[in-house]
């Protein structure tokens, strides 16, 4: 926001003490300082240079922005891979105990909308029937009822080495 002339002699962004306090003590960004003082971040940077006010490195900037604590917290969360008794590969957040199936993550990585993957009534299906076969081409998301019916009635054929549902129910 460049609303004032950079040459104003009493402009607050020209004051060394103000810039040091706002940048180093308050942890504001140059853009935030400019917004607060009514000038551009470019004017703030020019006057910081004129006053030889050093800039924060990335770690200091992250800390000033409050990101450092969030990053530290994120590092404390460890996703631990393991296989549950029914053979599916699962990743567990060791902090919260939340689980997510590898094949669900794979479906999302392959472009399926996460809301569809985790929507009630859908499953991420292993086309080959092998629960640990987590190749991208082996995963598809389908209706839970269709999935159950197909497995119960063996309504599958093989296509390119993969089981394919013969008569999917019309979802309209």
Short recap of the structure:
With 172 residues, this protein is of the alpha+beta class. The chain has helices spanning 16-25, 30-37, 41-50, 58-64, 67-76, 102-109, 114-117, 144-153; strands at 79-83, 89-93, 99-101, 122-126, 139-143, 156-159, 162-165.
Please provide a written account of the structure:
The chain has 172 residues and is α+β, with helices and mostly antiparallel strands. It folds into two domains: 12-72, no CATH class; 77-165, Homing Intron 3 (I-Ppo) Encoded Endonuclease, Chain A. The protein is built from eight helices and seven strands; from the N terminus they run αααααβββααββαββ. The strands form three sheets. It has a three-stranded antiparallel sheet. The chain has a two-stranded antiparallel ribbon with strand order 4-5. It has a two-stranded antiparallel ribbon with strand order 6-7. Strand 6 (156-159) and strand 7 form a beta hairpin. Helix 2 (30-37) crosses helix 3 (41-50). The longest helix has 10 residues, at 16-25.
The total of beta strands comes to 7
Mean pLDDT: 78
Report the CATH topology name of the largest domain.
Answer: Homing Intron 3 (I-Ppo) Encoded Endonuclease, Chain A
Helix and strand pattern: HHHHHEEEHHEEHEE
CATH architecture of the largest domain: Alpha-Beta Complex
Number of helices: 8
- Tell me about the largest β-sheet: 3 strands, antiparallel
Kindly, what is the distance between the CA atoms of the first and last residues, rounded to a whole number of angstroms? 52 Å
Helix content: 25-40%
Uncertain residue segments: none
Could you name the CATH class of the largest domain? Alpha Beta
Shape: rod-shaped
Task: Report the structural category.
Answer: alpha+beta
How are strands sequenced across the largest beta sheet?
1-2-3
Report the sheet-strand fraction.
Answer: 15-25%
Number of domains: 2
Q: Calculate Rg over CA atoms.
A: 28 Å
């Amino acid at each position: 926001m460049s609303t004032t002339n950079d040459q104003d002699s009493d402009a607050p962004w020209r004051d060394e003490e103000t810039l040091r306090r706002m940048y180093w003590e308050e942890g504001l960004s140059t853009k935030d300082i400019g917004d607060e003082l009514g000038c551009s971040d470019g004017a703030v940077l020019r006057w910081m240079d004129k006053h030889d006010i050093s800039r924060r490195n990335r770690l200091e900037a992250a800390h000033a922005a409050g990101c450092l604590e969030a990053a530290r917290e994120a590092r404390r969360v460890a996703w631990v891979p393991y296989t549950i008794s029914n053979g599916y590969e699962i990743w567990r957040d060791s902090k919260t105990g939340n689980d997510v199936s590898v094949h669900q993550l794979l479906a999302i990585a392959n472009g399926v909308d996460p809301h569809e993957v985790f929507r009630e009534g859908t499953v991420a299906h292993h086309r080959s029937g092998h629960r640990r076969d987590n190749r991208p081409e082996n995963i598809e998301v389908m209706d839970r009822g269709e999935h159950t019916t197909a497995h119960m009635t063996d309504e599958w054929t093989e296509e390119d080495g993969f089981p394919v549902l013969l008569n999917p129910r019309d979802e309209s």
